[in-house]
Structure formats: C-alpha cells, structure tokens
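quick q for whoever's on today - can somebody do inverse folding on this one?? i tried earlier but teh output was garbage lol. tokens:
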C-alpha cells in the first residue's frame, strides 16, 4: 500500500469549538448553543451554555435594570 495520500479535504461537517472551554465536536450537537457576538460565531457546549446563561442572567440582574 503505497498510494498517494489524497489532499486533506475540509470536513463535510463543520467542526465546532466551544469558545469557553475549548471542547470540540465534529458537528454541532443539539445541546450546544450558537450565538453571534461582534459578528463572530461563538459556540458553547452544553455545560458552558448553562454557565453562560447563568452569567447573562446575573449580569442582567446587576446592570439591566
Ligand atoms: Zn464548553
């Protein structure tokens, strides 16, 4: 087996990386959260999404009102 290795093709499924903990997934799991901040897509895994939502809510509590 000495065939030429094909050029690496971009993965058909979009690889996503959690912007908080760096966890990766081959495709976007339904439990992950996608949000656009400053024109860039941010992905959060299920664990970080929960933490993120909590921080958003606490931020709203302190500055929203
Ligand atoms: Zn995460």
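ok took a stab at it. sequence:
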């Amino acid at each position: 087996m000495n065939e030429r290795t094909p050029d690496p093709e971009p993965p058909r499924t979009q690889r996503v990386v959690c912007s908080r903990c760096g966890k990766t997934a081959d495709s976007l799991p339904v439990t992950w959260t996608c949000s656009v901040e400053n024109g860039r897509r941010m992905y959060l895994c299920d664990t970080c999404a929960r933490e993120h939502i909590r921080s958003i809510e606490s931020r709203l509590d302190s500055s929203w009102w």
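fwiw The mean pLDDT is 81. also The longest helix spans residues 46-64. so keep that in mind when u check it
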